[in-house]
Amino acid sequence: MGDHDDLRKFINDLAVVHGRVVLSSGQEADWYVDLRRVTLHHRAAPLVGRVLLDLTSDWEYDAVGGLTLGADPVALAMLHAASTIDRSLDAFVVRKAGKAHGLQRRIEGPDVAGRRVLAVEDTSTTGGSVLTAVEALREAGAEVVGVAVIVDRGAGDAVRAAGLPYRAAYTLADLGLVA
């Protein structure tokens, strides 16, 4: 099995939780994909980085990140995976709101102004979180080249409607969660 198949197995074994939940979008579902169980796992996180680097290998960007918290381990996994292949890739964190103290930055990490960046998320249903990050990145002077997620729960249309390329490593059908 390759990285893509191995990561899918981790997702199915560790992250898919059955039971009634309310998603960040406010929608209700009978199951939840808790990708932090994968993105923060010692064996799965490196796979996340390699799979998403491969998924976006034809896009040119030199920094990756998104809205905290879902995007943080994804961006760090990509940063670490990139370093193993001698690729320079920085990571950043987009806060939900600017800080009221210190440097009062909304985007933490290396400056994104004037840089080509990739916005990421672990999973997305409506695209709201990742599009909030995109807005903050553009306000900070970054050029957002696209959006990539591990699991798409339906956000693709909203992200593409906002004028951005969108890719997902897995769909719900890939995980056996829809017919």
From TrEMBL:
Its EC number is 2.4.2.10. Keywords: Glycosyltransferase, Magnesium, Pyrimidine biosynthesis, Transferase. It catalyses: orotidine 5'-phosphate + diphosphate = orotate + 5-phospho-alpha-D-ribose 1-diphosphate. Orotate binds at residues 125, 153. Pfam families: Pribosyltran (PF00156). Pathway: Pyrimidine metabolism; UMP biosynthesis via de novo pathway; UMP from orotate: step 1/2. 5-phospho-alpha-D-ribose 1-diphosphate binds at residues 95-96, 99, 101, 121-129. Gene3D superfamilies: 3.40.50.2020. It comes from the Bacteria. Residues 94-157 form the Phosphoribosyltransferase domain. GO terms for molecular function: orotate phosphoribosyltransferase activity. Signal peptide: none annotated. CDD domains: PRTases_typeI. InterPro entries: OPRT (IPR023031), Or_phspho_trans_dom (IPR004467), PRTase-like (IPR029057), PRTase_dom (IPR000836). Its cofactor is Mg(2+). Catalyzes the transfer of a ribosyl phosphate group from 5-phosphoribose 1-diphosphate to orotate, leading to the formation of orotidine monophosphate (OMP). Belongs to the purine/pyrimidine phosphoribosyltransferase family. PyrE subfamily. Homodimer. HAMAP family: PyrE. PANTHER family: OROTATE PHOSPHORIBOSYLTRANSFERASE (PTHR19278), URIDINE 5'-MONOPHOSPHATE SYNTHASE (PTHR19278:SF9). This is Orotate phosphoribosyltransferase.
